Amino acid sequence: PHPRPPQPVYENVVPPARRRGRPKSKAPENEQKIEIENGQSEVGKGEISQGHHKESTTGPTKGIKRARKPHGSIEGDAANNCRYDSSLGLLTKKFINLLKGAEDGTLDLNKAVEILEVQKRRIYDITNVLEGVDLIEKGLKNTIRWKGFDMLLPKEVELQTSALKEELDSSHDKESRLDEEIREAQEKLLALKLNKDKKKWLYLSKEDICKIPHLQVRKFLASCLFLLPVITKGISTIAPLIAGIHSYCNTCSSRNLC
Amino acid sequence: PHPRPPQPVYENVVPPARRRGRPKSKAPENEQKIEIENGQSEVGKGEISQGHHKESTTGPTKGIKRARKPHGSIEGDAANNCRYDSSLGLLTKKFINLLKGAEDGTLDLNKAVEILEVQKRRIYDITNVLEGVDLIEKGLKNTIRWKGFDMLLPKEVELQTSALKEELDSSHDKESRLDEEIREAQEKLLALKLNKDKKKWLYLSKEDICKIPHLQVRKFLASCLFLLPVITKGISTIAPLIAGIHSYCNTCSSRNLC
DNA sequence: ACCCATTTCGCGCTTCCA
DNA sequence: TGGAAGCGCGAAATGGGT
């Protein structure tokens, strides 16, 4: 299925039994260098305009991505600039995002490959590192699971934590506000009580009563001594009333009714 | 559906004189050297003999060929190297460890290269990903700094977070307890008020008063009509008192004192 | 223009699974 | 046992100095 572009056709094979690279190793005995000079041998490969079918997971996926970043790049404005955003760092972010998207924290790597439009190989680079840091866990076949709970982006934890702290604070002062209210309510209750107690003194004295002329009335009022605190209805203070009674008593007294 | 080219049998192919991967380039001009190491390249943990010359940084470092991963491998338990530990996942762990070691969280990548005995290239794989996840931050030249605080261990964050949540909870129900207290206090206040209102009806009627024999007393009591709600002192209900007054009135009445 | 740290990219081997 | 998954590895491209 996958056309695999022009495939250059190697014309050089290196004698087996040996690897290449590796200049500095410490075991120099027996190493040979073969220098190969190449002339032009152009790489076929022109442009790979393949409209990437989703096929092959591992194989070469897209060919290109960013347009060449020709030096000048007249337009050079928007954030499309080369190299920078093209890889791992950014890819990792995208990957993480994908991962956050999928609830149950499981992600299918092939899906990721499709969505992110990258070679599977790159995904492995990411998953390997993330696994090394225990943020991820390899699931069966082609999938990984997000471990390491929420704590992912420090930013997020920070946000979450500070949100929690804020709520705590608000709860705390809501609490103290309530404390205040309670205090006030109890104060009112006390004041009410005191008020009642004060009125206790607004009564007729024994002498006052004695000034009342008729015996029965005196007796009656005496029994009314129990009626101590008096509450008025419509009249804000009882003082005038008491005064009235005193006045009455005096009248009786002056008329010798006692 | 991955075609994956028929990979000829050749066991060692070297894209000769031409870059193999990287098809894109257009400038194949210069020559390249290919050093071939032959022999067995032993598994043993090559020494990093890079005693001098900075060369090492980028260049190929170790060459480790993994030992065969023999099927059975009786002991097959402990550190059976093979491919497994040779890479990224493990390397990442080691790297993180190094990072945790260095206080001030800064690590020199070249140091890491030496210590971990790996190619710089591998370190980049790690730093790129970690940076993508915001656990790391690139410092100037060859260094990175550990960001993302302690939160690395999910355990810790979890603990901190749950502690916070617990406090929040306790605050919340402390609050609701206070709410309850307030409610009760207000209830009491209301009850007190209602109580007062009820007592409003415990008064002597106009007729009651008219039954009182003597004019002055009648006048006096009439003026006392204002004293409507009556509060008792020591006596829980005023009913008996009212009854007493009625009784008194009746007595007067029966004696024709009216 | 050259140096070099960094990063891109993908070949080909290893390992897994049906 | 064959194909797919997984990934070591390093050449080469890139871009920032200077």
TrEMBL record, chains A, B:
Residues 168-195 form a coiled coil. Residues 26-36 have a biased composition (Basic and acidic residues). Its main location: nucleus. One of its GO terms (cellular component) is RNA polymerase II transcription regulator complex. Keywords: Cell cycle, Coiled coil, DNA-binding, Nucleus, Transcription, Transcription regulation. GO terms for molecular function: DNA-binding transcription factor activity, RNA polymerase II-specific; RNA polymerase II cis-regulatory region sequence-specific DNA binding. It holds the Pfam family WHD_E2F_TDP. Residues 1-78 are annotated as: Disordered. Residues 83-148 form the E2F/DP family winged-helix DNA-binding domain. It is found in: Nucleus. SMART domains: E2F_TDP. Belongs to the E2F/DP family. This is E2F/DP family winged-helix DNA-binding domain-containing protein.
